[in-house]
What does this fold into?
Amino acid sequence: MHTIEYDVERPDRDIVAAFEDVPSTIVSDVTGNVGLTIDSGIRPAYDGIDVAGTAITVKAAPGDNLIIHKAITMAEPGDVLVIDADGFTETGHIGELMCTSCQANDLAGLVIDGAYRDSREIAEMEFPVYGRAVHPRGPLKQDPGSINVPVSCGGVTVEPGDVVVGDDDGLAVVPADSAETVLERSREKLASEDDVREDVLEGEYLFERNGYDSLFEDLEVVGPEDSIQ
It folds into this structure.
């Protein structure tokens, strides 16, 4: 059985666009590091990648991309396809022609917990793609799937309309209803890091500036005799 939801509540486009200036590391820090940061197995297709957009979620049968084709026709400019293919990496679920279609219709990017193919062509066209692996085998087109339902991608539950932020370091997800708050906190953290950077450039150690020296003194040091061999 498959489910297709056409209506997606997206955050304000200006808020989403503002995340283009926020590194994934900052978003990860602000959202608590865990739970909303996609795992490191899902990697960018090329260096110098950047993406920020609203999620159109896809639940695809492993090895099949029929539902992905349908999702491309439903996505709006600025959306990111987030595809849950159960982490299946023995089929390239999407390739250069599908990415060309996404790019021609102004989608912001594509993330797949599974494999893609045509990696060289995708890198050359510089369409933002993240995936778990690359595989040359082509997909089937016979199994149903779902669009705009909650999916699991890289260990993170992604809802339609969530904001996906990515760069060379990886991907972080911002819940749609928290986008404005996360953006504000991200800007505050970026400003704070600018202040820290000035002090570091003048020779101050983060170890002392951030109070890590006090933390270090409170740690219980375990001697070699207590080590498990």
